[in-house]
């Protein structure tokens, strides 16, 4: 089950992001930032344990642009469609706000490609989105892949 995160989920979200951040697979986020952005997150609740086993966030950047970020799935739940469920939940939320473009910065282009994201040049993204990047140990030599999904409203 995917649902919006609550304050009580933040410690688990933090641990998930730290785990993958420590492996160099994503930018870890400070605990204070997670509390500030709790409304951006959805979580996946494992039916077996009733515990948070994944998280993903939608951050608005501009009137028609938003970012899918902080996607993390507990290792035991990977390969089971958990990431896809969370991303598609946030795609629908983005649509409800009238967003026409969703982007992500990722090391998992095959995963996002299956969800209709296409590779783009990072230089095509607005400078505003790089504000978090200055905190990354890889800045300014980012090696993440920028991908974009156009949202249709047919």
TrEMBL record:
Pfam family, one: Acetyltransf_1
Keywords carried by this UniProt record: Acyltransferase, Transferase
InterPro entries tied to this protein: Acyl_CoA_acyltransferase, GNAT_dom, NSI-like
A GO term for molecular function: N-acetyltransferase activity
Cellular component, GO annotation: cytoplasm
Keyword hit for Lipoprotein: no
Keyword Cytoplasm attributed: no
Ranges where the N-acetyltransferase domain occurs: 1-143
Name the UniProt record assigns to this protein: N-acetylglutamate synthase
Native species: Desulfobotulus alkaliphilus
